[in-house]
Amino acid sequence: MTVRSKTSDQALFSALRRGEAAALDELFRRYYVGLCRTALRFVNDPAAAEDVVQELFVQLWAKRDNLPEDPPNVGPYLRRSTRNRSLNYLRDRKRIPIDDGDPPEVSTPPRAAQDMEQAELQQRINRAIDRLPERCRLVFVMSKVEEMSHREIAEGLDISVKTVENQMTRAYRYLREWLAVILYLITLQNG
Amino acid sequence: MKANRPDIDRLARQYRREYNPDVEAALRRLHQRIGHDKPTAPPLRAERTTGTRRRLYTLSAAAAALLILGLALWFLSPDRRTVLMNDNPGIAEYVLPDGSQVILQEESQLAYDPEEFGSNARTVELTGQAYFDVVPDADAPFSVTHGERMVRVMGTAFNLRAVDTLMAVEVSEGTVELLDGSDRKRVSVKQRATVQSGRPMRVVSAPGLNHHAWRTGTLRFDDVSIREVLEIFSANWGIQCVLSGEEDCDFNVTGTFDVNDPAAILSDLAKLGGLQLRSVDDAGKRYTLEGDCRK
Question: Model ipTM?
Answer without folding.
Answer: 0.81
